[in-house]
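Deliverable D4.2, example record:
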Amino acid sequence: MDRMVGAPERLVFEGGPLLDPPVRQEPERAASQTAISGTALNTIADCLPLTVADKSRLQELKAKSAHRLAGERAKAHQAFIAAQAKQLAARKGINSQGGNAHDRAAMRGRLAAGRRAAVRRSELAGCTVADILADPDKFEGATLADPLEGVE
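Output generated by the structure prediction step:
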C-alpha cells in the first residue's frame, strides 16, 4: 500500500498554482515539466532518524515556540472556554455559572471522571468517562456521543 504513491500505473496530474497578482511563483521554483526516470524515494531508508542532538535541538525549538505563543494560546483557550460555556448553558437552559459540577467542568473544557457517557449499546449504558479511561478495549467499536457536546 505504501508503494502505491510511486507506482508507475498511478496517474498524477500536476500543474502550476493559480495565483492572483501581486503573488507570483518564481520561475526557478516552478515544477519541472520534464519526466525524470528513477525510483521513488524510500523515506525509511533515505531519511535517517533524528540523532540525540537533533532531538534535543527540536525540543529546544518547540519550547521556544511554546513560550513565544503562550499569550496567544491563553487568549484562544479563554475564547474556547467562553464559547463552550455559552453553548452548554444554552443547550441545558442554565446560566454559565450554574449547572452541576460536571457541567461547570465542561464549561471549562474539562471532562469530569464521573460524567456519564452517551453510548448506544445497552450493555454499556450508565458508563462514565472514568470507565472508558480504565478499560478502553471494552469500548472498541462502540458509538459514543461527544462527551462535551452531548447527543444532540
